[in-house]
Design goal:
The chain is an alpha+beta fold and about 210 residues long. A hairpin with a 5-residue loop joins β3 and β4. A 4-stranded antiparallel sheet has the order 1-2-3-4.
């Protein structure tokens, strides 16, 4: 049975990860494909306490976010290359400080957009019942999330990221089906994958309305 593979889209490329390694492939401005492969050294493999329920979920989420930020930073560095200039070494190592700063910005933005904003909008409405307030706030949160996805998809660069997101799903579906990873073989597979993180977030928001 194939290993469980996950991934995400990055700027002009994709990142894929297995339990032991992650790799990012990026199309450079000159058309060549750059590849970066890194080992995953998880604390869950070193200490049993990190494999306990709840704790392992927090660790896994932190690892996924850290790898995702690293992959995005690497792809951005390659995308910023000038195809006319001499080929130079591209930074592929991201410091812990840069990751923590990126975490803070991303989490702060998400809280403001998907937590604070729906609460403020709902507070402005003439609602007296707690149950109705919670449902309306949840519906507003889902609408903001869908509107956010729609608006960023209008930006050409981010539309390309969405296209790579679909390509990532096709590649993982093909890999898990045991198919050869060639463009012709992968093309026939679905754009949808059951472990899609974006779809998971949407389901969490919808279920959160009623829980």
């Amino acid at each position: 049975m194939a290993n469980s593979i996950g991934g995400q889209a990055v700027l002009e490329g994709v990142m894929m990860r297995s339990p032991s390694k992650w790799a990012v492939a990026v199309r450079k401005p000159d058309g060549e494909i750059a590849e970066v492969v890194r080992e995953i050294t998880s604390p869950m493999a070193r200490n049993r306490i990190f494999r306990l329920p709840v704790i392992r979920g927090v660790i896994a989420l932190g690892e996924s976010l850290a790898i995702g930020f690293r992959a995005l930073a690497i792809s951005a560095n390659y995308a910023a290359q000038d195809p006319e200039a001499e080929a130079g070494e591209v930074q592929t190592e991201i410091s812990r400080g840069q990751i923590i700063f990126s975490f803070a910005i991303a989490i702060g933005f998400a809280l403001m957009l998907f937590k604070v904003t729906p609460a403020l909008i709902t507070n402005w409405l003439p609602i007296d019942t707690t149950g109705v307030f919670v449902v309306i706030e949840g519906v507003i949160r889902v609408c903001i999330f869908l509107l956010y996805l729609l608006l960023i998809s209008l930006l050409p660069d981010l539309r390309r990221v969405f296209q790579y997101h679909a390509a990532e799903h096709k590649a993982i579906n093909a890999y898990e089906a045991g198919e050869d990873l060639t463009p012709e073989r992968v093309q026939k597979f679905s754009l949808i994958h059951p472990r899609c993180g974006t779809a998971f977030l949407l389901w969490v928001m919808v279920i959160g309305i009623f829980v």
